[in-house]
Design brief:
32% strand; 2 helices; 5-stranded antiparallel sheet; globular; alpha+beta; Alpha-Beta Plaits
Length: 107
C-alpha cells in the first residue's frame, strides 16, 4: 500500500490575473515544479491534479513521509500559490480528502 500526500491548494484566482485570462496560472506552475522535483528522484507525481471541493489537489508518493511533506511545503511557498495550502497524509486505499492533516509549510 503506497503512502500518498495530497497537496490541497485553495482554488483561488492568481494575483493580478486580468479578467478574461486563465484564472489559475499557479496550477501549471505547481505541476511543472512537481515534475522537476520528481526528476530529482525523491518523490513521484502519483496522479493528475484535480478539483476537490474548494481546493485543487496535487498527489505525490514514492518517497518517505518526510520527503513528501518537504515537497508539499515547497509547493506551499511558491510565489503565486494561494495561502492556506495544506497536506493530507493518506494511502492509495483511502478516499480523496481522507487522512491526517498537516499544515504547510512544515517547520
Amino acid at each position: 500500500m503506497a503512502q500518498i500526500v495530497e497537496i490541497h491548494v485553495p482554488l483561488l484566482p492568481g494575483e493580478g490575473v486580468r479578467e478574461g485570462d486563465y484564472q489559475y496560472p499557479w496550477i501549471e506552475q505547481v505541476e511543472e515544479f512537481l515534475i522537476d522535483v520528481e526528476d530529482e528522484g525523491d518523490i513521484e507525481v502519483y496522479d493528475d491534479g484535480e478539483e476537490f471541493g474548494d481546493d485543487y489537489v496535487f498527489f505525490v508518493s514514492g518517497g518517505s513521509e518526510k520527503a513528501l511533506l518537504a515537497a508539499a511545503s515547497r509547493v506551499a511557498t511558491l510565489d503565486g500559490v494561494p495561502a492556506g495550502t495544506f497536506a493530507l497524509v493518506t494511502d492509495e486505499d483511502a478516499d480523496m480528502g481522507e487522512g491526517r492533516r498537516v499544515d504547510l509549510p512544515v517547520r
